[in-house]
Amino acid sequence: MNPDVKVLFGNAIRNQRLKLQISQEELAHRSGLHPLYLSDVERGTRNLSLESIAELAAALELSLSSFFAMACAPESETQLPEILLVEDNPNDAEMTLRAFKKAKIANPLRVVRDGEQALDFLFATGEYAAWENRPLPAVILLDLNLPKISGIEVLRRIKADPRTASIPVIILTVSSLDHHIAACRLLGVHNYIIKPVGFRNLSEVTPNLLLEWALKQHSERESLSANAPRFQSPIAK
Prior knowledge:
Strand order of the largest sheet: 2-1-3-4-5
Mean pLDDT: 78
CATH superfamily of the largest domain: Response regulator
Helix content: 40-55%
CATH topology of the largest domain: Rossmann fold
Strand content: 5-15%
Shape: globular
Radius of gyration: 18 Å
């Protein structure tokens, strides 16, 4: 595969996986592929064999013809903006995915595993250096206890940079008594959710999301799920 085709297939796999609201780990399990291999495929840096394409199509609940058509089709202009989840605990990340699915929030949810990876994704550095022109996420869900770079430091850098300062950030914490919450509010965090994220505690912040970030419902033209709400970028209000 040439680089453009690898990127097209990587984007198609990631978009369909996010549409199904499953993690990379779950897709790797379903397809029988190694998680690191799948991660490289989604980034567009790994060649795909026809056998791997067939396995991924089946795991993504697509026919081969649909899979190829999706990879070759241009990205939809109405694609929903991403929500970035910064969470190092796979179980907590999976529970968050399920909570969003139950809440019928249709935006794709991207998961990164540590503070360094979060900053690389947001500022197109490191492994995400080729993503410089990709749209920024509409909302960031940020765990405080992260490896490599702490959640508070990630928040500090987000709010200090004009490119990301306006992105709403919701911190994830194990307790409402966490002394870091006050520091996060001073840095400009919008809200917090007690972990693990479930439908109930996610619903507690939903009224604020409706008011502040225009969490709206799809039209039937935009989604197969006519009642699925979405985040719109705060800039696009």
